[in-house]
Amino acid sequence: MTGEGTVSGVEICLDQVTKRYPGSQVAAVDEFSMTIPAGQVVVFVGPSGCGKTTTMKMINRLIEPSSGRITIGGRDALSLNPDKLRRGIGYAIQQAGLFPHMTVGENIGLVPGLLGWQQQKVRARVEELLDLVGLDPAQFRNRFPRQLSGGQQQRVGVARALAADPPVLLMDEPFGAVDPITRGNLQDELLRLQSELRKTIVFVTHDFDEAVKLGDRIAVLGPRSSILQYDTPEAVLANPADDTVAGFVGAGASLKQLTLLRVKDVDLDEAVTAPTDEDPAALHVRLTMQNSKYALLLDARRRPVRWVHVRELVGGGALSTLGRPVEATVTQRSTLQDALEAILTEGGHVPVTGQHGEYLGVVRIDTVMDVIRTLREEHEHDHD
Amino acid sequence: MTTTNPRAERIRLFAQPVVVLVGLAAVLGVIASGPLDDIEQRNINVSTILGLTWQHLLLSVAVTAIVVLVGVPLGVVLTRRWARPAAPFVLVLANIGQAAPAIGLLVLFFLVTGATGFWIAALPIALYALLPVLRNTIVGIQQVDPSLVEAGRGIGMSASAVLRRIELPLAVPLILAGLRTSLVLAVGTATLAFFVAGGGLGVLIDTGDKLGRYSVLVTGAVLAMALALLVDWLGALAERYLAPRGLR
């Protein structure tokens, strides 16, 4: 995620943080050490019961560590008053955790209120935040949580976490309880917000795909919150540290990797193109000379319309009736996974179009294969 | 006592006081229109009836005040982590208070204190009516979703702020339901206050019974019933309009 906003987050350091519950032989979290860089999204991912939530809750001391050190932006978190510490850390949880007896506005305005902001300022902030998460303030400010859909509640939950503009955000499976489509939208929304705000976000999930999509870095956690791998999504996908991580990554790691890259990240190839009114015989000559089998026909505004095979050019007839129509195109913003899907539909290559649907080039299946191969090689020696 | 059908509930809210008042007026009208002897005239007249009803109401209000002032804070304390082990014992005590016959409590309290009067009646009746409010306060706070309490702490509210601004408001509907039950118990039991010279409508019932004037007895009984039903109606109104808006 390369954002355009300036970094407003701060670094979080956990140093040998341990949680031992009384009466339990084994520690719930055992000597967890990690540096979370300022302005990045770090996703804790792992099976349920691995201690990822416990680890996260020790950062805002909802769970007190038994030993170890935690610093947030250089300040020792364990020496601060816990309530004051938490007012400076945004907190969003599953099913939003909105207070049902308070309006949307009251829910969002809670933390600024605790910090002693003037009412006027709180009101303005509530409006700003509702706008930010895509809810119309006039329509939603005075509603109660039960009058909102699940997705809207989650948006309000995120707005509440952002209310006092904290440098750090903790998110505990915040999108866990909504349907997949809404979930995807909320994830996109969070990425958009993050590209502007550049907070330090610790995000807990058990959904690896969510981790890949949202994380600048992924921490795959095992039993007692042991760090199995802590790396970029690309690296985790390309080269899982061990079999456990590989199992968690699941099938289709290469395909998941392709969701991380966009068409604009690869070099486009040139196809033989022709206007629909060109003489078929002339095109035949051009194709043979360039040793190509297919030509892409463009309409008057240079938009791809048909594919013509060299064999079809010899029978005669107008060019605009030959070959078969183009069924799929991709844009530069499409992911390589979408491009691959389109390539399989189109048969070997897919046209890439610009903002007005004009032809820019094609992506070939070989290009995609090369990308996968390069990624593998890049991360091959990561843990040697 | 609670109806789930909202339409039936609305009709009941409107109809209950009307039916009670009409019924009361009818009974009192029939009694007042008949020939009344000396004793009846001394008991069934506007100033006596109003005076005793007022006393009865005062008793009920005092009992309710004690119940709220004791039951709600006690219930809150018993849901705090450090006091949770004590909760079963206190609940057993309150259960005994309710299970024991109210008249037994009254007389025992009278025997122990050796005094009579308003407060000697109000205190044991309060013990008798305490349980619904106490239990509903505890249950009301316990049924608050723990993730909401954690969310409150997680965004930086202190434990007391969470209690004041989240737990208690969310428990209000149940506390009000308990209060309504307590109120009805209090109004009903206040008819026994005359045993310890506490006054109230029980005086009419007692007089009517001892002197064989059934009109007097019926007047007292019907008034006490009407009062209980009206108080129940007020409780229903409170449940409906005092609960936090987002929960209704």
UniProtKB/TrEMBL annotation, chain A:
SUPFAM superfamilies: CBS-domain pair (SSF54631), P-loop containing nucleoside triphosphate hydrolases (SSF52540). It comes from Kutzneria albida DSM 43870. InterPro entries: AAA+_ATPase, ABC_transporter-like_ATP-bd, ABC_transporter-like_CS, CBS_dom_sf, P-loop_NTPase. Residues 12-249 form the ABC transporter domain. It comes from the Bacteria. Belongs to the ABC transporter superfamily. The keyword Nucleotide-binding applies. Its EC number is 7.6.2.9. This is ABC-type quaternary amine transporter. GO terms for molecular function: ABC-type quaternary ammonium compound transporting activity; ATP binding; ATP hydrolysis activity. Keywords: ATP-binding, Nucleotide-binding, Transport. The keyword Transmembrane does not apply.
From TrEMBL, chain B:
Signal peptide: none annotated. The chain crosses the membrane at residues 12-34, 54-77, 89-111, 117-134, 183-205, 217-238. GO terms for cellular component: plasma membrane. The keyword Cell cycle does not apply. Its main location: membrane. One of its GO terms (biological process) is glycine betaine transport. Residues 53-235 form the ABC transmembrane type-1 domain. PROSITE patterns: ABC_TM1. Keywords: Membrane, Transmembrane, Transmembrane helix, Transport. It is a multi-pass membrane protein. It comes from the Bacteria. CDD domains: TM_PBP2. It holds the Pfam family BPD_transp_1. Belongs to the binding-protein-dependent transport system permease family. This is Proline/glycine/betaine ABC transporter permease.
